[in-house]
Amino acid sequence: MKNSALIKGTAAIAVGAALLLGGGGTLASWNASQTATPGTIVAGDLNVAADTGVWTDRLGNPVTISTYRVVPGDKLTYSQVLNVTLTGNKMAADITATGTGADNGFNAANVIVSAPVLTAGTSSTVVSNPLKTSGTVTATITFEFKSGTANRADVTKSYDFGSVAFDLNQVTQTGLS
Q1: Residues in contact with 177: Cβ distance below 8 Å, sequence separation at least 6, in sequence order
Q2: CB 136 within 8 A of CB 121
Q3: Strand 54-56 to 75-87 pairing
Q4: Model's pTM, two decimal places?
Q5: How many CB atoms sit inside 10 A of residue 29's CB?
């Protein structure tokens, strides 16, 4: 009798374990799946290609910057055609000037450096930052050497015009972080 009770107990434990492990179907869970085809995404583009820039004096005469000697009251203008590529749904960019600070010899007490003026294509239509479409713009910046420069201030001063350049930098649009 003892063996019969032991066998029945062991059988009951085995059936209970089988039920707990899913054999009885009481622990079934529902699931389903569906394949998704979200598509492909392609990154945009931001690029600038620059033509050779041109230096002119106050009267619009071309100058060779490496041999030109400025005097108080002079105004030099640098213009450069930029071919801008802006591709992307929220792409926008600013054109800024670099190489125009004190590190390059431009002291605000004696030289006024303008912000870049941008014109569309070959027209004189002024456009403003941020740019939002690809195209050709002409960037122009001026360096005006103050006529009020006193005494011999900045005599034989060296200005590094070789570092003057235009940069194209993406700006954050609404909907971007």
Answers
A1: none
A2: yes
A3: antiparallel
A4: 0.74
A5: 5
Residue with token string 């009020």: 148
Output the CA–CA distances (angstroms, integers) from residue 102 to 10, 72, 141, 143, 152, in the order listed. Answer: 92, 18, 16, 13, 19
DSSP 62: B
Q: CA nearest 55: which of 82, 78, 74? A: 78
Question: Residue 15 is inside which H or E element, if any?
Answer: helix 2-20
Q: Distance between CA 26 and CA 18 in Å, rounded?
A: 11
Tens digit of pLDDT for each residue in 17-59?
A: 666 665 555 556 888 888 888 888 899 999 999 999 999 999 9
**How far is residue 107's CA from residue 157's CA, in Å, rounded to a whole number?**
10
Q: Which two tokens stand for residue 47?
A: 């690029």
In Å, how far are 6, 42, 160 from 167, measured between CA atoms? 88, 24, 17
Sign for the pseudo-dihedral over CA of 22, 23, 29, 33: positive
